[in-house]
Amino acid sequence: MKKVFFIAVVIFILSVAVGIFIWWSGVSSPVSTSTETVDFLVVKGRSASQIGEALYKEGLIKNPLAFKFYVQTTGKSDQIQAGEFRLSPAYSLEKTVDTLTGPPLELWVTVPEGLRREEIVERFVQGLEKEEPDASNFRQEFLEASEDMEGFLFPDTYLFPRDVKASSVTSAMRNTFDKRIAEIGGDKSPEFTLEDIVTLASIIERETKTDVERPVVAGILLNRLEIGMGLQADAATQYALANARCQKLDARCDNWWPILTLTDLQIDSPYNTYKYRGLPPAPIANPGLSSLKAAIDPAETDYLYYLHDSEGGIHYAETLDEHNANVKEYLGK
Predict the structure, then answer these.
(1) For residue 96, which of 102, 124, 146, 298 sits 20 to 30 Å off, Cα-Cα?
(2) Which segments of the chain belong to CATH 3.30.1490.480?
């Protein structure tokens, strides 16, 4: 009886094994014999299940569950990079996964809000995996091509070929800016030039931390301009200081936004808004959509002062006495 049971178990296991083998042979084989290729985009943050479903819908694999099973059991699910890949329905499942875990044809590069162009180029040098001497050549070309574009290089997530020209990157960023500013009507302001809006927005971007406070700070800065008061924006003076300390074409400055000292506030630069009244001559960074909206549509307020406490909270004041009281209470000075 035991012998019969043992034989039955062996037959069952073999049957299951044969069934799995037949299933796997079917689902891991190419979808077709067509040698046509398809450019397949892996978006940042997509899970193995989502990628498998997308491959299945594109007709590049036979079974999304088999894809998920294979990448998880082989430990390759975390090796799939974001970017664009060239695949074919003639690829086996294994070859498709090998392609997705190799270098993509195009790479995603994210540019956050509030960076100078010297900081932006480093994002692309890193994101496009540039190595010397290509990195230095790309850096110089980018800075030359963007010389008059500070403030107009729109922060976003971009997809570029790894061998893209730096001039094409700056053009794409400027085109994105033009599109987004038109969407919010910033290119048709009756009161300010586009350059003034972007300059103000760049200060707002560097001086604020949240979307909620940006329109209020915009209103405060405009109140200061209206009464002939200096903007007294640390960010603009930081920009001036970094310009004096760092060589732009090298672009690898230790700190483009240094903490200011009382001595730093005396730097003789039109960007020093403690020393010179009015807007700086040009933007100091590249603002995002929230700051641009705030510059276009500032809040109406009687405040003239603001500060951030050590935890990032913002505090407003209408008079200098109130502001000094806030400084003492929230900064202990």
Answers:
(1) 124
(2) 28-100
Judge whether residue 151 has pLDDT over 70. yes
Smallest CA-to-CA distance from 253 within 262, 244, 261 is with 244
Phi, psi of 251 (to 5 degrees): 70, -5
The tokens 């073999």 sit on which residue? 14
Angle subtended at Cα 322 by Cα 317 and Cα 326, rounded to the nearest 5 degrees = 85
Please check whether residue 260 is in contact with residue 234, taking contact to mean a CB–CB distance below 8 angstroms: yes
Chain segment 238-256, per-residue pLDDT in tens: 999 999 888 654 556 778 9
Q: What pLDDT shows up at residue 157?
A: 94
Q: How confident is the model at residue 266 (pLDDT cuts 50, 70, 90)?
A: very high
CA pair distance 223, 217, nearest whole angstrom: 10
From residue 148, alpha-carbon distances to 129, 151, 284 in Å are 26, 9, 12
- What are the beta bridge partners of residue 42? 83
For residue 236, give the 3-state DSSP assignment. helix
Rounded Cα distance between 201 and 118, Å, is 18
Cβ of 35: how many Cβ atoms within 10 Å?
8
Q: What is the pLDDT of residue 245?
A: 84
pTM: 0.80
- The amino acid occupying position 216 is V
What 101-104 contacts at long range (C-beta under 8 Å, 24+ apart), as own/partner pairs, is 101/76, 103/129, 103/162, 104/42, 104/162
What CATH class has 28-100? alpha beta
Are the C-beta atoms of residues 107 and 160 closer than 8 Å to each other? yes
Cα–Cα distance for residue pair 281/288, rounded to 1 Å = 20
